[in-house]
Amino acid sequence: MYLSGGTCVALIIMGGSTMKQFYLTVCGGAACSPNPPTTAEWYLIFTCAAVVLSQLPNLNSIAGVSLIGAITAVTYCTMIWIVSVAEGRVSGVSYNPVSSSSEIGRIFDVLNALGIIAFAFRGHNLILEIQATMPSDEKHPSHVPMWKGVKIPSDGGVLAALFQYHGQDTSQVILGLTSLFVIINAISAFQIYGMPTFDDIESKYTMRKKKPCPKWLRALIRALFGFGCYLMAVALPFVSKLTGLLGGFALPITLAYPCFLWLKTKKPKMYSPSWLINWGLGTSGMGLSVIVIVASIYVLIDTGIHVSFFNP
To answer: Which residue segment(s) compose the domain that 106 sits in?
Structure first.
């Protein structure tokens, strides 16, 4: 649930900020209104749109939304790398990494980078939950279409960071379209990453009350979740500076929890090869998570961070 909630907070920050950028690009800011919405208000506009769309009941019902999100993701990633290749390198910009003055600092920088990568792929575990909703048999296993579905977006997404270097040299139409596609993708992704939390809360209600969750309660749960994430986004707008640290906390979900869950469900014989492998992998994953967290804290202390609560 903390992975789901944290991802939705990050999506609100990204989606709201992109809405603001889209407004400034298309409308020209003060040219349309002398008092444009604040960043917090853009977060709220994005959250309202996401909450309305979150009323779809389950993963199967948001298949169309997911498809739209995937198409827009591939589209804006393609636009970004095409613009980057067409514009070339920006003059006066150094592409050399900034190295730390000490050996331990350089090591911690590398570990912090691993945490940032882990944060970037924090939600990929939900692929397993999506795959579980697909029909599967021996002749037509579900992992085949799932693999095809995620291959292209994953390959294209790694180039998205190039966008920021060409903001002043690119057509406003392209910048506006790219921002619009990012907004649509973020709203679509909110539904996918929020669904595990919705399902968990509603299933607990069903198990306790022995009856389906009523529609009004489902709507209330999803609205409270969405606006709770909005509150966190406004309260902690500097969360992007903590990506390495958050990635360190997210690592066990991929590298440790699956091994421990397998041990708990399968209960292999103690000291058997599968028992040793899973305990070794799970323990190593937890150890790597601790090391990345320590490295990220060191980098934060070394470089400093500007904290601004409730001031996005």
So the answer is: 2-88+99-303
